[in-house]
Each structure stands twice: as structure tokens, then as C-alpha cells.
């Protein structure tokens, strides 16, 4: 690879790109993150809240990041809140999902703004030695025999052995790599604005209002609406107080006065998924690989789990410790998970439509959620606990996330023994091998897979 300076170029410095960069660094690779926005523009990602679900929280805990997020929570009273002790597990199409009881060991979730999440992940990644360059817009890529070249807006270029597009739903990387992005057109327009009403109490927040969804003050200082009028005509046009006033009126049936508006964003249920997450030396993660409605808050978690899955694999391949075919397991494992989330969010949007027929369907589903097994199923879908990379495996633990709280700040695989059994957790926390104590059939092969034959593994004993 003559002239290749970087192991991996990551296009996009949002949460997914930052987590992937840290994972690659732990795996022994030297990634370079190229982010188009400069430091001041990144604050535009501050609208709304982002939820970290139970499974992603466990992944972050695996890397020792829980304390950092707890500190952020303490700095944001009344806005971001830690969910320990809460029985709430979000909602499905606006129908609350509440557990009957919560284990003291239940996974901790977080709610925070995206720019705060990025700050924590950037500090972690740079602490590991990751190089992050802001104000570097990638406008084209070119695959060569032994490298990938990223062309910047100023005409300069960077080369690497591999390149990962974490550059969002309008991904330049995906388009230039020629990866198809099939899906469905938007059916609704959502708006979030930093705004104030003359009479905030005039409108009652509702997920199922006469014309759609409206929330006033659920996030302090913000108003949100969702109406089923097709997608936004111009998603990037500046939002006005009149636009927000009219939207609140259509959704709630109440005429309001917007006294101030300091910016806003639009979203839709445009739902698409890349046909493959890899083409040659180019890979996709996060919104570059899949987009959908933000209802239910699954998109960020889906992307962060992409990063956890890809990081250790790409790190091994870059180091020459694993064959390139290991990268094929990234699409094989993550594409079905993405398909499931897209189906889930499509269903939620359909159930939030106004009208008596859909309202009746919601009532039937609400009754169904009163059945404990059904409620557990919906909660597992929402928090990622139903992910199984090896369905039908014997023992069934293989392919699922490790059943115990684990810590691997250095990204090593973990060989865990105790309670009559032993299992091997991959660097991303998923089980690669399991057997009763004393049985070792298949262990050498599993160790070679997750460590590249170096057997860089930590032994842990749990009672």
C-alpha cells in the first residue's frame, strides 16, 4: 500500500464516527476522522434530545464511559436525566412501555443532546490518540487497488487502506461508492423549533392529537409537531414563527401566537437502507447505511451499535490479523438488525396517524401491551435486547450480548467463567462461544476469530 498514510478514514465526526474511531484505536488501528462542520457549526445539532437505550448503555459501560455520562447528567439538571430506577422504557407509537418491576442491575439509559454526546465521545477518542479534523468536507472518494482516496472540498486528498462513511442520510460516501439506497418516500413532516408561545398552557401536548403530534415544553424551550402531509418541501429552508404557528394550529386545532423563534429543524419518515454496508474498501455506518423516522429514538442507537460491531473487525483486518472476509460479517450481522428497526419505525408512524380507524388499532395494541410477554417483547425491540447475531445457536447464548455487566476499557475480548459455564465475549460484548465449564470444543477457533490469533484476551471470573 505505497503512499497510504492512514489505516482508516472516517467521513463524519458525529456520535457514530467518533465511537467507531475509538473502537478502531483500541483494536490497534490509526483512524483519521474528517468532519465537514467546524467547531461553531456543530452546535446546530443541539435540537431535541437523544436517547441512549439499554443495550447501547451496556456497550458504553463496557468501555468505562458510564462515569463520563453520569457527570454530564449532573451538569444538565432538568434536561438530561439518567433513567436508573425508572420503570419507563419509552413508548411504541406513543403508547407507554412501563416495566412491572426494575432489577437493581437493569441497564442504565441516558437522555441528552447530541452535541453533549459528541463532546464526551470526542474527549474519549482523542484521549486514545484519535485524530479529528473539523472543517474538512469530503466531496468525492475513489477506490484504488490497495487504498481509498478521499477528495476534500479544497482539492486536497487523503488516502487510507479503508474508508467508512458515517456522513449521514445524504452520504457522499454511499453515493460515490455506488451503493443502492432503496426504500419508501416520506409521508409526514416533523418540526422542532426553539420557540415560545404567548400562552404555553393553551396547547396540551399529545402524541395523538386531532391532526398529529404536538409537544410544547417537553424539552424546555422547544415546540415539536408532526403532521401527515407528505415530506417537507424544503427541509433546509429557514424555519419561521409563522410556519411553526400554522403547524401547531393544524395539529392541535388551536390558534396560537408564537412570540419568538430561534431556529428549527424538520424531519420526516423517509425510510431507506443501503443494499450492502460494504463495497470493496468502503463501508457505511449509521445514517449513511439506514434512515427512518426518529419516532422511538432508535436511529442513534442503531448507528452506535454499527460502530461497536465494525470497529474490532476492521481493526483486525487493517493489522493483518484477520482475513478481509471478516468484514463480510458486518453486513451479515447488522443489515438484518437495520431491517428490523426500519419495520419497527414504519409501524410506529402508521399507528400515529390521526383518524378513528388508526385510533381503534392503537386501542387494540394497548390492550395487547397489557399482556406481560407482549410488553416484554416490545420493550426488547426498543432497547436492542432482542439482537441475536446467531439465531438458533446451541447454546443459545452465542450471538447474544453477554448476560453479565462487563468492563473492557482496552477493547479486549473477555473469557468469562463462573456458575458452571464459560463464555467468550467479543470486543463488542457479544458472545462468540459458550460451553459448560470443562468443555473447550470450538474455543480455539473462536479465540482466533475475535483476537486475530494473537489471543489478546482477558480472563474474568464471575460468581
Secondary-structure blueprint:
Elements lengths: L5 E6 L3 H12 L4 E5 L14 E3 L1 H9 L3 H10 L5 E2 L5 E5 L2 E4 L11 E3 L1 H14 L3 E4 L3 E6 L4 E5 L4 E9 L6 H6 L5 E2 L4 E9 L8 E4 L2 E5 L5 E6 L13 H12 L5 E11 L2 E3 L4 E2 L2 E3 L5 E2 L7 H20 L9 H24 L4 H13 L3 H12 L29 E6 L2 E5 L5 E6 L6 H9 L5 E5 L2
Parallel strand pairs: 1-2, 1-11, 2-8, 11-20, 22-25
Antiparallel strand pairs: 3-7, 4-7, 5-6, 9-10, 10-11, 12-18, 13-16, 13-17, 14-15, 15-16, 18-21, 19-20, 22-23, 23-24
Helix pairs in contact: 1-4, 1-7, 7-8
Number of helices: 11
The helix content is 25-40%
Name given to the CATH architecture of the largest domain? 3-Layer(bba) Sandwich
How many beta strands in the DSSP annotation?
25
Describe the global form: globular
Distance between the termini: 48 Å
**Main sheet: strands, sense, barrel:** 8 strands, mixed
Number of domains: 3
Unreliable segments (pLDDT under 50, ≥5 consecutive)?
A: none
**CA-based gyration radius:** 23 Å
* Proportion of residues in extended strands: 25-35%
CATH top level assignment of the largest domain: Alpha Beta
Tell me the CATH topology of the largest domain: FAD/NAD(P)-binding domain
Report mean pLDDT, rounded to a whole number: 90
Q: Say which CATH homologous superfamily of the largest domain is assigned.
A: FAD/NAD(P)-binding domain
GO molecular function, one term: FAD binding
Cofactor: FAD
InterPro entries: FAD-bd, FAD/NAD-bd_sf, RIFMO-like
Organism: Amycolatopsis umgeniensis
Amino acid at each position: 500500500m505505497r503512499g497510504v498514510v492512514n489505516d482508516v478514514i472516517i467521513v463524519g465526526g458525529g456520535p457514530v464516527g467518533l465511537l467507531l474511531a475509538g473502537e478502531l484505536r483500541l483494536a490497534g488501528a490509526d483512524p483519521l476522522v474528517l468532519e465537514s462542520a467546524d467547531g461553531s457549526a456543530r452546535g446546530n445539532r443541539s435540537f431535541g434530545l437523544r436517547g441512549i437505550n439499554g443495550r447501547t448503555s451496556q456497550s458504553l459501560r463496557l468501555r468505562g464511559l458510564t462515569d463520563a455520562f453520569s457527570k454530564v447528567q449532573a451538569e444538565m439538571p432538568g434536561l438530561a436525566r439518567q433513567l436508573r430506577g425508572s420503570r419507563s422504557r419509552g413508548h411504541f407509537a406513543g403508547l407507554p412501555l412501563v416495566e412491572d418491576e426494575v432489577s437493581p442491575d437493569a441497564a442504565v439509559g441516558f437522555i441528552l443532546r447530541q452535541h453533549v454526546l459528541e463532546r464526551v465521545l470526542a474527549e474519549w477518542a482523542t484521549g486514545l490518540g484519535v485524530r479529528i479534523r473539523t472543517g474538512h468536507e469530503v466531496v468525492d472518494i475513489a477506490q484504488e487497488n490497495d487504498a481509498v482516496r478521499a477528495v476534500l472540498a479544497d482539492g486536497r486528498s487523503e488516502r487510507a487502506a479503508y474508508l467508512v462513511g458515517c456522513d449521514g442520510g445524504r452520504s457522499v460516501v454511499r453515493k460515490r461508492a455506488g451503493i443502492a439506497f432503496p426504500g419508501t418516500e416520506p409521508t409526514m413532516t416533523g418540526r422542532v423549533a426553539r420557540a415560545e408561545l404567548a400562552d404555553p398552557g393553551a396547547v396540551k401536548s399529545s402524541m395523538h392529537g386531532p391532526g398529529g403530534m404536538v409537544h410544547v415544553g417537553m424539552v424546555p424551550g422547544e415546540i415539536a409537531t408532526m403532521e401527515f402531509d407528505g415530506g417537507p418541501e424544503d427541509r433546509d429552508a429557514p424555519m419561521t414563527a409563522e410556519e411553526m404557528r400554522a403547524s401547531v394550529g393544524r395539529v392541535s386545532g388551536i390558534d396560537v401566537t408564537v412570540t419568538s423563534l430561534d431556529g428549527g429543524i424538520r424531519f420526516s419518515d423517509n425510510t431507506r437502507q443501503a443494499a450492502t454496508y460494504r463495497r470493496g474498501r468502503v463501508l457505511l455506518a449509521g445514517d449513511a447505511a439506514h434512515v427512518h423516522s426518529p419516532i422511538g429514538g432508535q436511529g442513534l442507537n442503531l448507528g452506535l451499535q454499527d460502530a461497536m460491531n465494525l470497529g474490532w473487525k476492521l481493526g483486525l483486518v487493517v493489522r493483518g490479523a484477520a482475513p478481509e472476509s471478516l468484514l463480510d460479517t458486518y453486513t451479515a450481522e447488522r443489515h438484518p438488525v437495520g431491517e428490523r428497526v426500519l419495520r419497527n419505525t414504519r409501524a410506529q408512524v402508521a399507528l400515529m396517524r390521526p383518524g378513528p380507524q388508526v385510533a381503534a388499532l392503537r386501542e387494540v395494541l394497548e390492550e395487547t401491551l397489557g399482556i406481560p410477554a407482549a410488553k416484554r417483547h416490545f420493550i426488547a425491540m426498543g432497547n436492542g435486547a432482542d439482537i441475536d447475531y446467531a439465531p438458533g445457536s446451541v447454546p443459545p447464548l452465542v450471538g447474544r450480548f453477554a448476560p453479565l455487566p462487563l468492563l473492557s476499557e482496552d477493547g479486549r475480548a473477555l473469557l468469562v467463567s463462573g456458575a458452571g459455564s464459560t463464555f467468550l465475549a467479543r470486543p463488542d460484548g457479544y458472545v462468540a462461544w459458550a460451553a459448560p465449564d470443562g468443555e473447550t470444543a470450538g474455543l480455539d477457533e473462536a479465540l482466533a476469530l475475535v483476537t486475530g490469533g494473537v489471543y489478546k484476551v482477558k480472563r474474568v471470573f464471575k460468581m
